[in-house]
Design a protein that fits this description.
By secondary structure, the chain is of the alpha+beta class. Helix content is 31%, strand content 16%. It contains 3 helices and 5 strands; from the N terminus they run H-E-E-H-E-E-E-H. It has a 3-stranded antiparallel sheet with strand order 3-4-5. Strand 4 and strand 5 form a beta hairpin. The protein is globular, with a radius of gyration of 19 Å.
């Protein structure tokens, strides 16, 4: 999505595909269905319904360019979605934690760059805030920002 109107185009295209598939097909009754631009997330009772959602959306695409995949949660394994990983815990609740793609570079902002010190401090603070906001468990690392 390197072109400025591309995100809006993705939203409109996915909405049109969903409008004629997910929202009208009575065989598809997900517990949860959500989308962020072109990333879809759904909670279903079994893998067959998850695959039915994907095939229903793909069949609505006149260009046949949409290819959806199913990452089905194994019993206690994490699966990535956006900037977090999701898994079922022993009680059937969703557990989330921060996820960074493997190709993501570890260098966020060089400490010797010419950015103001406040920008460097807030970059680090925001990284921890993001990790805390997407994680369902208590944070492992506490940072003292008053020093």
């Amino acid at each position: 999505m390197g072109v400025r109107p591309a995100p809006l185009g993705a939203i409109i295209k996915m909405w049109k595909l969903e409008r004629n598939s997910v929202y009208v097909d009575l065989r598809i009754t997900p517990t949860y269905y959500g989308r962020y631009y072109d990333d879809l997330g759904a909670i279903t009772t079994n893998i067959r319904k998850a695959q039915l959602i994907c095939s229903s959306i793909e069949s609505q695409d006149p260009d046949n360019r949409i290819r959806l995949t199913v990452d089905y949660l194994d019993r206690y394994d994490y699966t990535p979605f956006l900037n977090m990983e999701v898994k079922n815990d022993q009680n059937g609740n969703l557990d989330t934690r921060l996820f960074r793609k493997p190709q993501k570079k570890l260098l966020t902002l060089n400490a010797s760059s010419h950015h103001p010190l406040s920008v460097k401090e807030h970059t680090a603070t925001n990284m921890y805030d993001t990790a805390e906001s997407v994680s369902s468990s208590t944070p492992v690392l506490c940072v003292d920002t008053t020093a």
